[in-house]
Specification:
There is one protein chain. By secondary structure, this protein is an alpha+beta fold. Among the domains are: about 5-100, PH-domain like (Roll), CATH 2.30.29; about 110-185, Structure-specific recognition protein (SSRP1) (PH-domain like), CATH 2.30.29; about 200-325, Roll (PH-domain like), CATH 2.30.29; about 340-420, Pleckstrin-homology domain (PH domain)/Phosphotyrosine-binding domain (PTB) (PH-domain like), CATH 2.30.29.30. Helices cover about 40% and strands about 30% of the residues. An 8-stranded mixed beta sheet has the order 4-3-2-1-7-6-5-8. An 8-stranded mixed beta sheet has the order 18-17-16-15-21-20-19-24, covered by helices on one side. Strand 10 and strand 11 (about 125-130) form a beta hairpin. Helix 12 crosses helix 13 (about 570-585) and helix 16 (about 670-680) runs antiparallel to helix 17.
Length: about 700
């Protein structure tokens, strides 16, 4: 016979809900692992007292009772597996697997039996239903009646909240059957009552979820959070895991308590209790117990008097009471040397901790993902910028988690960690054909062998270049679309759309001529940079006096070399920080000395500015006078040239007057007078016409004389 039996897709009944997982039976005992939470129930073979096989809704089920009164139910077996299980129980556990079917008569009267943690309602020898007393949240009594209230189950669509039992009166004197029923229920029920003194109290602890400051009272069986608005009572049986995580700033610590089932506040469920501590906080703790009781209960894990950091004391007490290991980050170190990665999940920024057996994200909302429930991971390019990437995780149940805005410097470290844990990487399958030597360098720390990282770097460079080009030449791109030489049709369409969106008056202008506005836009484009260049040239005068420095800058220039010598190898940023600290710590008398120096420098600057402004005014007046003289001379020269041109044109017109009168077009006198008037309005053109007109008139006169 085999030493072990394994069953997949087995359902465990816990507080009214069916949780799927894997069941393994071995010589040492029974192990069930919940596929949703990863919680493991381990039943030693020596603790088993009874095994029952029965028909249930999901096929056939197995009920195990232990010697200390605990009951475990597993459903989902096939009828053919009974013989195999029965033989295994006989051979390894020395137990008979009894067959007991449930009563389905539909009667509502019978006998109640209390066995360990179970209330069984029986008709004859057959059970009708069973109630785990750990599900009971409250028990109240009335006249011949007992009411049981249950904890709300978040995993079930419909939850049973209340059951009432009618207890008929008996003839026995001195014994109340109703009170006896209620006491049997309360002795095993999960009814939290803060009776007695707390073992210890931690006051005003900062809690991130649920948010606020709470006093934590430690009782033997539960944890009591007392705040200004809400109170929470957390049984130690609901604590799933404990985490102690260092903050990225290395000055704070997170203590995370994973809960199943979660604590409730209205419709809000808190699956994690997150406490934030400062490493500098110390505490001296005295347990409210005798030394003998402390030694007997905790077996050396705690002492009556303890002292140390606050987070160490809280984690040490919780570990001893809950009896669970504390998970801390493993060997992972990010780019900055921290054991976590800064990222964003949904709308909030937080920290992602790669652990030895999973990932945990704190703090809003907290997420814990085990490696055994991960289907694959994916490294994706950031959607907003190339300086970051996204880390996606998809579980076997189909749930997807996306941690975004991770600095690309963290990629190599995170990829090596994921690769070392042998997690499936979605990107790798897509690139096996491109790079066949990928698997050979799977354990290498060099980033150059990672095809995805190389592609991400190249795309990042291209996008940065495009971004720089677009930012530097944004005006040119808009003007190129209005270039009538290259794309006349596109220009017309773009201009029409802009005109229609602007105003109704623009519509009419655009319909008249579509190419003219394009030319105007081009002219504007050519003129704008010229003005900017002129303005940039005019800038600051190098001869102008420099502005005075502040007292702090005068002190920094005088002490910069001293700070460098006191701290060799200090960077520029660290030097400025150190200087700021020294300046803040300086006494008022020393600061007043530098304030006086700064005031003297300001006076010298004002005096120099007055002298500079007077000199600049005189120079500007001289330049203005010289410009006026030049303009007058130019006007005089132009006037003389115009007179000479007019005289020559008038002489040539008199000689050819007879010829001009016989013809029907305008005379040269009208043309010359028109040209002279246009010459006055356009200065540059008039100079050219004045220089070119005398030879033209001489030629005409020569032809007329001939």
């Amino acid at each position: 016979m085999a030493d072990t039996l394994e069953f997949n897709e087995i359902y465990q009944e816990v507080k009214g809900s069916m949780n799927d997982g894997r069941l393994r039976l071995s010589r040492q005992g029974v192990i069930f692992k919940n596929s949703k939470t990863g919680k493991v129930d381990n039943i030693q073979a020596s603790e088993l007292a009874e095994g029952v096989w029965r028909r249930v809704a999901l096929g056939h089920g197995l009920k195990l009772l232990t010697k200390n009164g605990h009951v475990y139910k597993y459903d989902g077996f096939r009828e053919s597996e009974f013989d195999k299980l029965s033989d295994f129980f006989k051979a390894h556990y020395r137990l008979e697997l009894a067959e007991k079917d449930l009563c389905v008569k539909g009667w509502n009267w019978g006998t109640v039996r209390f066995g360990g943690q179970l209330l069984s309602f029986d008709i004859g020898e057959q059970p009708v239903f069973e109630i785990p007393l750990s599900n009971v949240s409250q028990c109240t009594t009335g006249k011949n009646e007992v009411t049981l209230e249950f904890h709300q189950n978040d995993d079930a669509e419909v939850s049973l909240m209340e059951v009432r039992f009618y207890v008929p009166p008996t003839q026995e004197d001195g014994v109340d059957p109703v009170e006896a029923f209620a006491q049997n229920v309360l002795s095993k029920a999960d009814v939290i009552q803060a009776t007695g003194d707390a073992i210890c109290i931690f006051r005003e602890l900062q809690c991130l979820t649920p948010r606020g400051r709470y006093d934590i009272r430690i009782y033997p069986t539960f944890l009591h959070l007392h705040g200004k608005t809400f109170d929470y009572k957390i049984p130690y049986t609901t604590v799933l895991r404990l985490f102690l995580l260092p903050h990225k700033d290395q000055r704070q610590m997170f203590f995370v308590i994973s809960l199943d089932p979660p604590i409730k506040q209205g419709q809000t469920r808190y699956h994690f209790l997150i406490l934030l501590f400062s490493k500098d906080e110390d505490i001296s703790l005295t347990l409210n117990m005798n030394e003998e009781e402390v030694e007997k209960r905790f077996e050396g894990r705690l002492t009556k008097n303890m002292s140390g950091s606050l987070y160490e004391m809280v984690s040490r007490v919780m570990k001893a009471l809950v009896n669970r290991k504390i998970t801390v980050p493993g060997n992972f170190q990010g780019h900055s040397g921290a054991q976590c990665i800064t990222c964003s999940y949904k709308a909030s920024s937080g920290l992602l901790y790669p652990l030895e057996r999973g990932f945990i994200y704190v703090h809003k909302p907290p997420v814990h993902i085990r490696f055994d429930e991960i289907s694959f991971v994916n490294f994706a390019r950031g959607t907003t910028t190339t300086r970051s990437f996204d880390f996606e995780i998809e579980t076997k149940q189909g749930t997807q988690y996306t941690f975004s805005s991770i600095e690309r410097e963290e990629y190599g470290k995170l990829f090596d960690f994921v690769n070392a844990k042998k997690l499936n990487i979605k990107n790798r399958g897509l690139k096996e054909g491109m790079k066949q030597s990928y698997d050979e360098y799977a354990d290498s720390d060099e980033d150059q062998h990672d095809a995805y990282l190389e592609r991400m770097k190249e795309e990042g460079k291209i996008r940065e270049e495009n971004a720089n080009d677009s930012s530097d030449g944004s005006g040119e791109e808009t003007d190129e679309s209005f270039n009538p030489v290259e794309e006349d049709d596109d220009v017309a369409e773009e201009f029409d759309s802009n005109a229609s969106a602007s105003s109704s008056s623009g519509d009419g202008d655009s319909d008249r001529d579509e190419k003219k506005p394009a030319k105007k836009a081009k002219i504007v484009k050519d003129r704008k940079p010229r003005k900017k260049q002129v303005e940039s040239k005019k800038g600051k005068d190098p001869n102008a006096p420099k502005r005075p420095m502040s007292a702090y800058m005068l002190w920094l220039n005088a002490n910069r070399e001293k700070i460098k010598s006191d701290h060799p190898g200090i960077s520029i940023t660290d030097l400025s920080k150190k200087a700021g600290e020294l300046w803040k710590a300086m006494s008022k008398e020393k600061k007043e000395e530098w304030d006086r120096k700064a005031e003297d420098a300001r006076r010298d600057y004002e005096k120099a500015m007055k002298e500079y402004s007077v000199g600049s005014r005189s120079e500007s007046s001289k330049t203005e006078r010289s410009k006026k003289k030049k303009k007058k001379q130019e006007k005089q020269m132009k006037g003389k040239a115009e007179k000479k041109g007019a005289a020559s044109r008038s002489s040539s017109s008199t000689k050819s007057s007879a010829k001009s009168l016989s013809e029907s077009f305008k005379s040269k006198e009208f043309v010359s007078s028109d040209e002279s008037s246009s010459a006055e309005s356009k200065k540059e053109d008039s100079e050219e016409e004045g220089g070119a007109s005398p030879p033209a008139s001489s030629e005409d006169s020569a032809s007329g004389s001939d």
